Amino acid sequence: MRIAIIDCGTNTFNLLITDVTEGTISLVHKEQVPVTIGKGGIEKKIIAPDAYKRALDAMQLYSLRIKEFNTDKVIATSTSAFRSTENGPKLRNEIQELTGINVEIISGDLEAEYIYKGVVWALPPEPGSTYLIMDIGGGSTEFILYNDHEILFKESYALGASRLIEKFKPSDPLSAGNVEDFYLYFKEVLESSLIKECLIHKPDYLVGSSGFFDTLRSITHYRFHSEQPFPEKDKNYPITLDEFKYSYDLLLRSNYQERLEIKGMTPFRAEMMGVSIILTDYVIMNSGAGTIINTTYALKEGVLKTFIETNP
Questions:
Q1: DSSP H or E segment with residue 73
Q2: Contact 77/303 with Cβ under 8 angstroms?
């Protein structure tokens, strides 16, 4: 069976088409469109008109791709921007009218569950170790704390990069005052829940999935490992704390144009990398995680895994 998974995120709409045969998968097509539908409205609980159009255009493109690759089944989900804006349901309905694709608006809890399923598919937990998944989106950030036999904590927070930029409107480059304001806000939101649980369960690994961490992989590779082929097909990629610290300093002293010129930068993420790395730094400092692993599997792979499990 050929299955298309569409993840309608706040920053990007992702398409994954795979062939599934007796529980095994083979990649057919993978595509990403930077829609940034949270830009210009998410803090006002609205998808702005230009962002709304970008979303429709992306889904019409994906509708053509699905037909082009003779897909048997389509599963589409949408996340923070759809569920937290007044016109998110309207956009979902218009997508169905234009393309015939039914987009399910999922809860933050289900989003975290799918991310967890995708990540552990790529990175099975080892006995005796504890992991903290961090998935920074445009509208929300999901955290899942777990070990080899259970989920210890999971939560979706309104801490997406686009939402934070809309809320704080930081300078470019980020000022010392901006950085302090972000840290204080992260402490206010996370200290009594996520950080409290991390102090109890002590994660060994911070597992970063999705866009920010994928871009961080590229930046650190080209800075520290450029003599080696780019690890595009590696599901899991370690990033040392020294490599992270280098990237933190680089991103915080750079303005938008300078970030665009960083080798390995995903252009449409340049605006969001600063606030994302501050959030990641806060989590590293306060969770105690000593190793960072970037995994390429996340929500869409979790949706696919769930489908395979329920349709043996």
A1: strand 73-78
A2: yes
Which of 212, 311, 189 is CA-nearest to residue 270? Answer: 212
Kind of pairing, strands 2-8 and 12-21?
A: antiparallel
Cα dihedral: 179, 181, 186, 191 (round 10): 120
- Same domain for 102 and 145, yes or no, is no
42-92 confidence digits (pLDDT tens): 999 999 999 999 999 999 999 999 999 999 999 999 999 999 999 999 999
In tens, the pLDDT along 126-182 reads: 999 999 999 999 999 999 999 999 999 999 999 999 999 999 999 999 999 999 999
Instruction: Report the candidate in 297, 306, 289 with the shortest Cα–Cα distance to residue 129.
Output: 289
CA–CA separation, 61 vs 57, rounded Å?
A: 6
pTM beyond cutoff 0.85: yes
Q: Which two tokens stand for residue 39?
A: 């830009």
Q: The domain containing residue 135 runs over which residues? A: 123-299
* CATH code, 81: 3.30.420.40
The answer on 290 and 151 residing in a single domain is yes
